[in-house]
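User: These chains co-purify. Model them together.
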Amino acid sequence: EPEVTQTPSHQVTQMGQEVILRCVPISNHLYFYWYRQILGQKVEFLVSFYNNEISEKSEIFDDQFSVERPDGSNFTLKIRSTKLEDSAMYFCASSEYKNTEAFFGQGTRLTVV
Amino acid sequence: QQQVKQSPQSLIVQKGGIPIINCAYENTAFDYFPWYQQFPGKGPALLIAIRPDVSEKKEGRFTISFNKSAKQFSLHIMDSQPGDSATYFCAASNQAGTALIFGKGTTLSVSS
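Assistant: Joint model of the two components:
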């Protein structure tokens, strides 16, 4: 069964450093997403990406964040100048169309120290 | 307006019981309502979803009931098993957007 894969599973970084989280969406899907889940809290939408551009973003997704589809399979989230409060699970998701079934990866646990 | 309110926060049932998790929304533009199951350290897994044109949808032991006029929807788990112990999230989205808006989650514990 096709699945969304994310790497790394765990990333530890020092405050102020840049991190790149990687995702391989399901191959025939057209919409890609990043969500964040702070420990014990709800899943929060960050950004959606379609046709090589941002389709929608939340107020969390400020200038510190950027997304990119560098090739035909990968989808990345870059966080510049990380802060302690960026520590969370980051989930990539994809869907064939918008407003339909979205499938999530296993997540990257980001720890900022 | 963009919130989805989920209750209860936690739920304990005995094996074979029927836990019910409720969600309510205000934005009438929402037209897609999925439920996700999440185990510790894992990503949310899509369980079942419904659109407002039907009042109920069943997949295996999982049933969604949808009340459009009340702007509420709920998940019922029939014959619950210890393996169903997880956190359940309701969510909603609308055709004009792409974001899933999640509820705060319900931690379900099914005792044997």
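The mean pLDDT of chain A is 95.
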